[in-house]
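Sample A.
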Amino acid sequence: MKKENVLFIAMMVGEIMLFLLCGFSLIQCFVFGNFDEDLGGHIIEIIYLFIHLIATAIIFYLSFKAFKQGPSIMNNLMLDEDNNKITSKLITSGILAVLFIAVAIYSTLHVSGLNMPLLDKLSIGLAHDLMNAGYLLFLIAASLFVYPFIFTKPKEPRKYE
C-alpha cells in the first residue's frame, strides 16, 4: 500500500472520531446549555456545530475520494509542477497545525472542567465550537504538512526509440 493511502486512511479515521466528537458537543450544548441567559448566541453556536458536522462529512468524502482516485487537491496545494515540495507552504501548514492544536487543547481543557482565563467568561458552546474547529483544522494542516514528505513521484514512462 502506498504511503499516501495510509495518510488518507488515517485522515478518514480521524475525521470519523471528530464527527463523533462534534455530535457529543451538540448533545452537551443541548443538555447543559443555559437557554435563559443568551438564547441568540447559544443558537448560533449550535447552528455552527451542525454546519461543522456537514463540513466534517464533506472533508471525509474528499479524503475517501483521494484514497480511491489519488490526491489532486494536496498535489496542487503542496507541490509545484515538478512534484517538488514548496517550502513556504510547508512552513505555513506547520505553523497553522501548531496554532490549531494549541486552540483545541486549550478549549478541551475548558470543556473538561478547568477554568481557563480567556474562556471562562464565554459560554460553553463557544468552547465546544473552538475545540471542534481546532481539531479539524489541525488534522487538515498536519496532513498538508506531512503529505509532501511521503509523496512518491510517479514513474515516467519509458521512451522506446
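Sample B.
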Amino acid sequence: MIITQILISLFVLFALSRVILRFREDKVSTVGLFGWVTLWLIVEIVVWIPNFTTSIARILGIGRGADLIIYFSIVALFYLVFRIYVKLEDLERQITFIVRSIALQKIPRTKRKVKK
C-alpha cells in the first residue's frame, strides 16, 4: 500500500503545481483554485487515512468508504459535464451572434434593403 500512497501523493503534488501555475497565469479563478486545492487535499487525506472515508460512509448510511467515493465521483462528474454543456451552449450563442454581425457588415448597404 505504501508504494501506491507515495505514487498518488506525487501525482497530487504534480496536480497542485499545475493548478497553482494556471492560477498565476490567470487561467484559473480564485474560486477554481480553492476548489481544486480542496479536491486534491481531500485525495491526500483519503490516500493516507483510508478509514476516514469508511467513517463518513457509515455516518451517511453507506457500507464502504470506496462506495462513498464512487457515488461522490459519479455525482461530481455529472455536475461537471452539465457545467461544460452550459458553457458550450453559451459559446455557441456568442459565436452565432458574432458570425451574424460580421455577415451583416459585409453585405453592401444597397442589398440590405428588402424590396416590397
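B remarks: The chain has a mean pLDDT of 91. The two ends are 80 Å apart (CA to CA).
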